[in-house]
Amino acid sequence: MGEKIPHWLDKQAFLNPEKTALETPEGHVWTFSELQERSRQMAYDLKRMGVEEGDHIAFLSGNDIHFPVFIHAVSYIGAVVVLLNTRLTAPEISYQLQDADVSRLFFAASLTEKAYQAVEGTGVKAVECINEPSVSREEGGLKKEIDFDAPYTMMYTSGTTGNPKAVIHTYGNHWYSAAASALNLGLTPDDKWLICLPLFHVGGFSVLIKSVVYGMSVYLMDKFNQEQVHEAVMDKHVTHASVVTVMLQHLVKRAGSSGYPDTFRCMLLGGGPVPNVLLKNCSQKGIPVFQTYGMTETSSQIATLSPASAFDKAGSAGKALSLAQLWIDTPVPGEIGEIIVQGPMVSKGYYNRPARQESYIHTGDLGYQDEDGFLYVVDRVKDMIISGGENVYPAEIESVLSEIPGVKEAGVTGRPDDRWGEVPAAFLVAENETIRNADIYRYIGDRLAKYKQPADIYWVQELPRNASNKLLRRKLFSLTEGGDQ
Q1: Which transformation does this protein catalyse, written as a reaction (predicted)?
Q2: How much is the pLDDT for 228?
Q3: Which residues of 406-420 are buried (b: 16+ CB within 10 A; e: fewer)?
Q4: Where are the alpha helices (DSSP H) in 215-310?
Q5: How far is Cα 356 from Cα 112, in angstroms, rounded to an integer?
Q6: Of the candidates 225, 238, 303, 363, which lies 20 to 30 Å from 353 by C-alpha distance?
Q7: Cβ(182)–Cβ(214) below 8 Å
Q8: Mean pLDDT across the chain, nearest whole number?
Q9: Is pLDDT above 80 for 202?
């Protein structure tokens, strides 16, 4: 057993019982003591259903106010929760349920049809999430401590090859991530962090952990809405927000010439490169932007650039946080190489995959550090596409496209898009002349999430490959001259 601390929600309910833990635009307000009561009662309800310590249970839900209740309830039992992306199709969810050895899938009522389709033939029991815990009271049987070495969550991330993998996060990973963020950004008693990113992604989920580690209020939105975010910053005393570039572009436009009040301290910006003109607009309007680099495997941010360096180090993701280490796998300073990270927030590995022996992780991202130690990411997970903040992996799309009768070969890469940053484009080699784009979209419609579906399809004679027959995705667009779309 590893290091233990008092249960973080119990501790905040003791230290700050009347402080607001959760607030929504719809007017829901829960204190830490109310969140504790609801979470403990839901834990008893889950135990009565048969959920036990060590069980793998999945959760399919959007940013509902009951999401935090459920994940804290799981922590009182010691089960492991697999957080599912609501945008995935039923077959994609089904794969994850089986790969993670899930026994029960808990789902929000709005996702009933998808949930039952996903569990069909898997042996997984589907259970609608309990929005209102029972009123019966029980004593005992719930965990009073957090074990840093115990697994808590699994979140799927796709590799550049093969099927998606479940990143295992321990309680310690999440706690140290929250601590490192606080040491970087600072912490005050009036902090209130707005969440408009999905809670099933590590960027959104990490804020829920920050809340119970810091005793910090959270303003929870079900999805991004520029009017609601603007109002929250201007009138609801929000001090922090986590966003991706496409969101910030909308917010800067909405802010107009007025900018943001001095009470707003941090716009934490992830999800890929940031246009320099956007940073200048934010600076002119007094919007403090902290560019950041992180991944699911690092439990959220692991390097962050402060606004003070935003222009001197334009394009940089900053320096490694105080509890983290970061270096480039190259013997020559300043040269591009693979980014390697280490620290107590870094996951120890993937479920059902060979264990990693090293304490550090090869990120698969290419970058370099300048003479001052600032990180510049030049390529995200090799061929990965970042579309509206979502990671899109060409290999996964290519696998589905290659299943289609009439498609001989498939290659996928990203192209710039004014709205989403990047979108996938597919390059296909046909086996016959009868297959058309409509056939492609008909096949992938219920097999790939909308954001993974190619925005463009090009029919080509052959795909570019190297001497080892490896697909050269970066050369795909060189085929468009003379290619049919």
Answers
A1: 2-succinylbenzoate + ATP + CoA = 2-succinylbenzoyl-CoA + AMP + diphosphate
A2: 97
A3: ebebbbbbbeebeeb
A4: 226-235, 245-255, 276-284
A5: 37
A6: 303
A7: yes
A8: 91
A9: yes
pLDDT of the residue at 469:
53
CATH of domain 385-479: 3.30.300.30
Q: CA-to-CA distance for 318 and 309, rounded, in angstroms?
A: 8
Tokens standing for residue 253: 């436009």
Angle between helices 245-255 and 276-284 (to 10 degrees): 40
**Which of these, 220, 218, 214, 217, lies nearest to 183 by C-alpha position?**
214
Both tokens assigned to 481:
């001259």
Q: What residue spans in the chain does CATH classification 3.40.50.12780 cover?
A: 1-147, 174-342+354-382
Distance CA 435, CA 429 (A): 10
The rounded distance, in Å, linking the Cα atoms of 310 and 320 is: 15
Are the C-beta atoms of residues 62 and 222 closer than 8 Å to each other? yes
**Identity of the amino acid at 146:** I
3-class DSSP string for 141-189? CCCCEEECCCEEEEEEEECCCCCEEEEEEEHHHHHHHHHHHHHHHCCCC
Beta partners for 147?
4
CA-CA-CA-CA torsion sign (233, 110, 442, 95) = positive
Contact status, residue 248 vs residue 280, Cβ threshold 8 Å: no
CA angle 478/480/484 to nearest 5° reads 160
Q: What is the pLDDT of residues 25-66, one digit of tens each?
A: 999 999 999 999 999 999 999 999 999 999 999 999 999 999
Cβ contacts of 428 within 8 Å, gap of 6 or more: 401, 407, 408, 409, 410, 411, 440, 457, 458, 459, 460
Q: What is the mean pLDDT of residues 328-347?
A: 92
CATH of domain 1-147: 3.40.50.12780
- pTM of the predicted protein model: 0.84
Tens digit of each residue's pLDDT (9 = 90 or more) over 366-391: 889 999 999 988 755 567 788 998 87
Q: How many percent of the chain have pLDDT more than 90?
A: 69
Neighbours of 72 (CB within 10 A): 22
3-state percent helix, strand, coil for the chain, nearest multiple of 5: 30, 30, 40
Q: Two tokens at 356?
A: 């990693």
Mean pLDDT of 97-123: 97
Alpha carbon distance 295, 153 (integer Å): 15
Candidate from 21-35, 46-60, 216-230, 467-481 with smallest mean pLDDT:
467-481
How many residues can be counted in the chain? 485
Task: Report the alpha-carbon distance of residue 182 to residue 185 in Å, rounded.
Answer: 5
What fold characterizes domain 174-342+354-382?
A: Rossmann fold (3.40.50)
